């Protein structure tokens, strides 16, 4: 049986586009909240294969999305590099920040795969339970995005600590990105070996890079990861998501050999169609806030995206993750409208 998402990644347009949503498993789902309540630490949920597989499958059962995305977090990689990582309720992630050469030296140079073994087991479990036409997506954070959290030691609105590093400690940043490239390669290879059909590289903070660092911090590390994974898993399929890249999407798709590119909600649709979708399958890009708002505004926004991208290879998604307060009924409205749109 074919998987419609994999067909699109091969450049074959589908009459009804496959649909999945970033953060499709999570707090907007009552069944997630019920399960989440029983686990204190979010990381414990990511590292419990039975529960993580269950959470991965919740949105598939409810909405029959065309892809399931492994339930985990990008910050399990710093955890497996020996950094302390905690998620405190309402506060987001907390890590012991990499601020200088000394704190950098405390990191392991390679991943502790034993710490990540539960994640690989989650992939295998989901694979065995997933309908044959549903794609299983693995993922990791792109090196720059993971580095922003490692350097700040927390989520920040603007990632100024990491942006300062670009100027203050360029060599240390390069060394950190190198470690993250290597770690991501090993991590993704094992996800493919466990059964992932494709993987997404989340570069959530690509857009804040100064232009002269975009190549060095976003493009180059992502390109290296893809080449090295494919040397071990020939034909490995990648979706790249350089959020906020804007006009730099052109340079990104030229240099990063992805199979599809994820677009955020701010991109100019005509530009994305003419300059990006003409060269690569695209995925996106509904504003998560219009999904929160619902109503006619949601219908109109869906139609506009469909009109713009449906003539070419296209995966329907959001331009960033589902917001926790999003009503389930709005997600139902979205899925129904996309599937009725052939
Ligand atoms: O459904 C899915 O998309 C799969 C699971 C997934 C999570 N995080 C679960 C999660 C994925 C793919 C991620 C990626 C991730 N994590 C990114 C990149 C994509 C993006 O959203 O920008 C980033 C930057 C992180 C780091 C992270 N994780 C932060 C900053 C936070 C705190 C903010 C928040 O949303 O709570 C998390 C926590 C997190 N990751 C939750 C979930 C469901 C909420 C934790 C909880 O339930 O208590």
Key descriptive features of the protein:
globular; binds coproporphyrinogen III; 342 residues; 9 strands; two-stranded antiparallel sheet; single chain
List the helices and strands and how they pair.
Blueprint lengths: L3 H6 L20 H8 L4 H5 L2 H15 L3 E3 L6 H5 L4 E4 L3 E4 L5 H5 L7 H17 L5 E7 L1 H10 L7 H9 L1 H25 L3 E6 L7 H22 L5 E5 L6 H7 L4 E3 L6 H9 L4 E5 L1 H6 L1 H15 L4 E5 L9 H12 L3
Parallel strand pairs: 1-4, 4-5, 5-6, 6-7, 7-8, 8-9
Antiparallel strand pairs: 2-3
Bound molecules: coproporphyrinogen III.
The site of coproporphyrinogen III has 22 residues, from strand 3 and strand 4.
Could you characterize the architecture of this molecule?
The chain is an alpha/beta fold. Helices cover 51% and strands 12% of the residues. It has helices spanning 4-9, 30-37, 42-46, 49-63, 76-80, 101-105, 113-129, 143-152, 160-168, 170-194, 211-232, 249-255, 269-277, 288-293, 295-309, 328-339; strands spanning 67-69, 85-88, 92-95, 135-141, 198-203, 238-242, 260-262, 282-286, 314-318. It has a 7-stranded parallel sheet. A two-stranded antiparallel sheet has the order 2-3. Helix 4 (49-63) runs parallel beside helix 7 (113-129), helix 8 packs across helix 10 and helix 15 (295-309) packs parallel to helix 16. The longest helix is centred in the middle third of the chain and has 25 residues, at 170-194. It is globular. The two termini are 21 Å apart. It binds coproporphyrinogen III (CP3). Residues 22-27, 36, 42, 69, 71, 73-75, 87, 92-93, 139, 141, 155, 202, 204, 321 line the site of coproporphyrinogen III (CP3).
């Amino acid at each position: 049986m074919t998987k419609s998402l994999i067909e699109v990644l091969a450049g074959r347009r589908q009459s009804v586009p496959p649909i999945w949503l970033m953060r499709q498993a999570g707090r907007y789902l009552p069944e997630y909240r019920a399960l989440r309540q029983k686990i204190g630490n979010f990381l414990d949920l990511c590292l419990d294969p039975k529960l993580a597989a269950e959470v991965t499958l919740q949105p598939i059962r409810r909405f029959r999305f065309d892809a399931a995305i492994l339930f985990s977090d990008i910050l399990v990689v710093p955890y497996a590099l020996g950094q302390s990582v905690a998620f405190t309720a309402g506060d987001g992630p907390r890590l012991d920040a990499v601020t200088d050469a000394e704190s950098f030296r405390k990191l392991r140079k390679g991943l502790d795969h034993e710490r990540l073994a539960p994640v690989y087991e989650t992939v295998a479990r989901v694979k065995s339970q997933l309908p044959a036409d549903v794609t299983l997506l693995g993922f990791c954070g792109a090196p720059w995005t993971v580095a922003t959290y490692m350097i700040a030691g927390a989520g920040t609105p603007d990632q100024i600590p990491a942006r300062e590093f670009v100027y203050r400690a360029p060599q240390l940043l390069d060394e950190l990105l190198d470690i993250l490239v290597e770690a991501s390669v090993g991590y993704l290879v094992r996800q493919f070996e466990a059964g992932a059909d494709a993987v997404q590289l989340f570069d959530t903070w690509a857009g804040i890079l100064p232009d002269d660092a975009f190549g060095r911090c976003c493009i180059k590390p992502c390109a290296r990861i893809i080449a090295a994974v494919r040397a071990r898993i020939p034909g490995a399929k990648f979706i790249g998501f350089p959020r906020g890249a804007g006009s730099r999407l052109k340079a990104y798709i030229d240099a990063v050999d992805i199979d599809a590119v994820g677009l955020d909600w701010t991109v100019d649709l005509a530009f994305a169609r003419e300059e990006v979708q003409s060269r690569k399958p695209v995925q996106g890009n509904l504003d998560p806030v219009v999904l929160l708002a619902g109503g006619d505004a949601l219908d109109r926004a869906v139609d506009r995206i469909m009109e713009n991208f449906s003539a070419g290879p296209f995966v329907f998604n959001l331009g960033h993750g589902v917001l926790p307060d999003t009503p389930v009924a709005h997600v139902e409205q979205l899925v129904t409208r996309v599937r009725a749109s052939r």
